[in-house]
Structure formats: C-alpha cells, structure tokens
Amino acid sequence: MALDADIKAQLSQYLQMLEGDLVLKVSAGSDKVSEEMLALVEELASMSPRISVEKVELARTPSFSVNRVGEETGVTFAGVPLGHEFTSLVLALLQVSGRAPKVDQSVIDQIKNIKGEHHFETYVSLSCHNCPDVVQALNIMSVLNPNVTHTMIDGAAFKEEVERKDVLAVPAIYLNAEPFGNGRMSIEEILAKLGEGPSADTLSEKDPYDVLVVGGGPAGASAAIYAARKGIRTGIVAERFGGQILDTLSIENFISVKNTEGPKLAAALEEHVKEYDIDVMNLQRAKGLEKKDLIEIELENGAVLKSKTVIISTGARWRNVNVPGEQEFKNKGVAYCPHCDGPLFEGKDVAVIGGGNSGIEAAIDLAGIVKHVTVIEFMPELKADEVLQKRLYSLPNVTVVKNAATKEITGTDKVDGITYVDRDTGEETHVELAGVFVQIGLVPNTDWLEGQLERNRIGEIIVEKNGATTIPGVFAAGDCTDSAYNQIIISMGSGATAALGAFDYLIRN
Ligand SMILES: Cc1cc2nc3c(=O)[nH]c(=O)nc-3n(C[C@H](O)[C@H](O)[C@H](O)COP(=O)(O)OP(=O)(O)OC[C@H]3O[C@@H](n4cnc5c(N)ncnc54)[C@H](O)[C@@H]3O)c2cc1C
C-alpha cells in the first residue's frame, strides 16, 4: 500500500513513540480488501522494528488485531482503517504499546472497574467523522481492561454483514452481539450507559452554585468561562458537552480560525472550560426548573441542583418531519447526518426532505455516493442559496419535487419508500427507496421549561439584551433563545453576555 508521503512522514514520527513491541495478527484472504490490508500492515512493520506481523485466522477476514507480545489486547480492525479511522489505528498502536491514553484518572478508574465480559463491535464508514470518537473510546477501554474487547468493522468491506444486521446509520455499536448505541458517543457516555456514572444523591449533595449553566455547547461553555473568571462558584450541567458542533464537519466562519472541524472545536471548548474551577456535570439532562429561595434544576435521574442564578443554553436539535415511519425507522433508513450515513446507501436510491441550505448541501453530497436522490420540498420553491441550487440542478441523478408534503415513510423492518402528496392537486406519489435524510431545520431544546418562562411561538426563550428571561436570576443564551441568527460565534457572544448579566444580578441581589 502506497501511503501518501506526508502521512508516511507523520506516521514514522508517531511510530518512534512506540513504547513496547507489538504483534499485528492478520487474518487475510485473497480478496482486494485483504490485499490492501496486508499491504498496510506490512508497510507499518517495515517502518518500525517494534512491529511484527503474524498470520492467523480471526473471526472476520480481512481483519487484524493489535497486541502486545504474548498478550491479546482485544483491539481489532476489520477492513482497512484508513480515511477518518487512520488516527484510530495510530492511537491504538501507541496505546497498546504502553503509551497512556489522554483521559482523566477518574475515567481510567471507571474503565478498570468494569466487570464481566464486554465484547464491543462498531460498524463504521471511513468517511464518518463521528465514528473515530467511538472507535477510539472503545479501543482505550479494551487496552485498559482485559474484560473488554473491541472490533471496528468497516461497513463497506463487510456489506453482507451490514445488510444482515440492517445497519443503516453509523457508528452502530453492538455489545455482546446486541445493539448498544448509535451515533457519536464519548467514553463518558459509554461508561454512563454501562452504569458507571455518578449517582443522583452525589449530585444533590453538591453546594449551591452562584451560576449554574444548563447546556454545554458553545453558548454554555462561553457562559461558564465568563462566570468562573469572576471568581464565583460555577457549575455546568450538560446532556452532551459540545452540543451541535459535535455533529458538524467543517467550520470556516469561526472568526480567527480559518478552518476547523466540529469535534476539534468541542475538544478545545472542553479544554478551555477545564482551565477554570468549573464543576462540569456531563451526560446529565435537566427536566425541570423551579424558582424558590434559590433556583432549583431537577435532573432526569432525580437529582436536584441549586443555584443563585441559572443560565439556560440548551441549544437546538434536528426538527422531525413527524410523519408515520420516521420514529419507527430511525437508524433503519431514516437518517439526519449525510456525512456519516451517506456511504451506507452507496448505489441505492434515497430522498432528502428539505430544500433549504442544509437539505441541498446534503443532496449534492449524497448524489456523489448514491444512485439517485429525490429532494422533497414543502414550499413551491427551494429556499437554498442560488449557488447551491445551480450545482444541484447540474447533477444527473437528482430529482427535485417542490410543493409536496411528505405523507409517510414506508417499510417493514427498514425503509423501503416514501409517499408524498402534491399540495395543489392532492395527487399521491410513492417512491421506492432505501433511505430518507431529514433536513428541515432545528427546534429549540426548551420543552422542559413549559409554563415556566416566556417563550415565543416556536419555543425560543425570549431574552432581554443582557440575556435576562422573565424569571429573575434566570438568563438564557444561544440557539435556545430568540436571537436573530444561530451561529457558533453568536452563541458564544450571547453566553458571555448572559454570564455578565448574571454576575451583575448577583452584585445587586
Ligand atoms: C450540521 C450543522 C452545521 C453547522 N455549521 C455551522 C458553521 O459552520 N458555523 C457556525 O457558526 N454555526 C454552525 N452551526 C450552528 C451552530 O452549531 C450552533 O449555532 C451552535 O452550536 C449553538 O450553540 P448553543 O450552545 O446555543 O447550542 P448547542 O450547540 O445546541 O448546545 C446545546 C447544549 O445543551 C445541552 N442540552 C440540551 N438539552 C438539555 C437539557 N435538557 N439538559 C441539559 N443539557 C441539555 C446539549 O447536550 C448541548 O450540550 C451548524 C449546526 C449544524 C447542526
């Protein structure tokens, strides 16, 4: 395998950091993927005297496991881990060789505490930007705990297996052959799902905060940092630290950073937050807010956190199309992330619901992979920018249906079609296809505040120019508010504003 010269140069630097000898146990056949995998493995061995290769028979062919000499570590790659998974391979080599993974000691302790056999398998696509996080997290767990094993499986190399299991969204994680999770999961999320997180009592016993931020996206992170810099007791409770940017591929308008990737920016946010004395409670979902002497935030696990002020920054989530079939076939043909799940529909027919910028970008992206894309737009015209429309209409394998209401996503155990209705004539059309990508915008995550504070018609929290809401001491920031535009830099600005607003409130009350 001829690795690109730049990659080879970088790889050679990394391989110098190996701390112990490694054996790559390879199970190869005579197929093309086996050949590519063998070439990659042999190239690795040729670049470091610490790496040797042994031919064996593993559960899957082609695959290879990464082991210490005389010790199986349980880290296996089925297929060729290039593309987005190349970093996972490099990290696995380093960590199996003895280099400590970059995770907190508390996380290491939780991993070591896992009892019983845990055999994880993750189906990925090499173009999925959410998959490496899962692969790397589970590899770390395998390296640290002999009861845990993990196999990354490239869906494109194991098409039959993927079809048999109806894997239509990646990463798809299985534990002991049963479905465990879908989509990006951090190591903390995996541990929480295994029941290794903090208890409700531990959380309820925490002292009241001066500022408690609910939500850990760009707005929440910014609010927490601004509050902590005032030297006041600050906490942040988030369902999923990082927020929407975890699902964003390329970011080119975060001023002063020419280009970055969402997960990279999320990691930078976390690092910045950790620079301060901020109590981060990740993977905890708020379900209620009540103003008593202090403001109380009730969490889904029953814990109650108290604070003098609260900043709500719970952001937004994908809007559902709310037709029969959408919930039933989520991850079984109904998808929301074209970058992640597009490759699973290679050579098949799909639909994109939504003709705004995100819908048309998705359609253009998918048209390069799938056989045919049907774009369904509710309004008589597409709303996407002219330049995107032009590109879309230049593609030979796209049909645009305008002024059409989606009626149903059909299927038995997975999606097999979509039915839409012409809004003028009432005529119904059914299209047979394998996947539906829903791209119709976002809704604010404010349902849990129902009846508590003033929100507008679409559920956004109405805020004053200092971020204040209709409850004294409760502030809000970011995509969950009625701000004119939803962007990272705007959310961060409003997070900062809300924190300064809260600090001002604390001084006066
Ligand atoms: C695909 C995509 C691409 C994008 N590309 C760009 C771009 O290129 N440039 C740009 O500027 N913007 C982009 N955006 C928009 C940008 O990501 C958002 O404006 C920004 O993330 C909003 O930040 P936020 O902190 O307000 O909310 P979010 O990022 O939504 O974060 C909300 C936080 O609150 C948490 N939360 C939600 N409900 C609860 C609850 N009940 N309890 C506790 N925690 C909760 C979430 O887990 C999360 O931590 C993109 C968005 C998407 C979806």
Short description:
This protein has 509 residues and is of the alpha/beta class.
Walk me through the structure:
It is built from 14 helices and 27 strands. The chain has 509 residues and is of the alpha/beta class. A hairpin with a 4-residue loop joins strand 15 (295-299) and strand 16 (304-312). Helix 3 packs parallel to helix 5. The chain starts with a helix and ends with a helix. The relative contact order is 0.10. The mean pLDDT is 94. Bound molecules: flavin-adenine dinucleotide. The site of flavin-adenine dinucleotide (FAD) has 34 residues, from helix 9, strand 10 and helix 14.
What is the overall pLDDT average? 94
- Characterize the overall form: globular
Beta percentage is 25-35%
Name the bound molecules. flavin-adenine dinucleotide
- Regions with pLDDT < 50 over 5+ consecutive residues? none
The total count of strands amounts to 27
Helix count from the secondary structure assignment: 14
How do the strands of the widest beta sheet line up side by side? 2-1-3-4-6-5-7-8
Taking the alpha carbons of the first and last residues, their distance comes to 67 Å
| Main pleated-sheet profile | 8 strands, mixed
Considering DSSP H and I runs of 4 or more, what fraction of the residues is helical?
25-40%
Question: For the CA atoms, what is the radius of gyration?
Answer: 24 Å
Oligomer: single chain
Tell me the structural class. Answer: alpha/beta
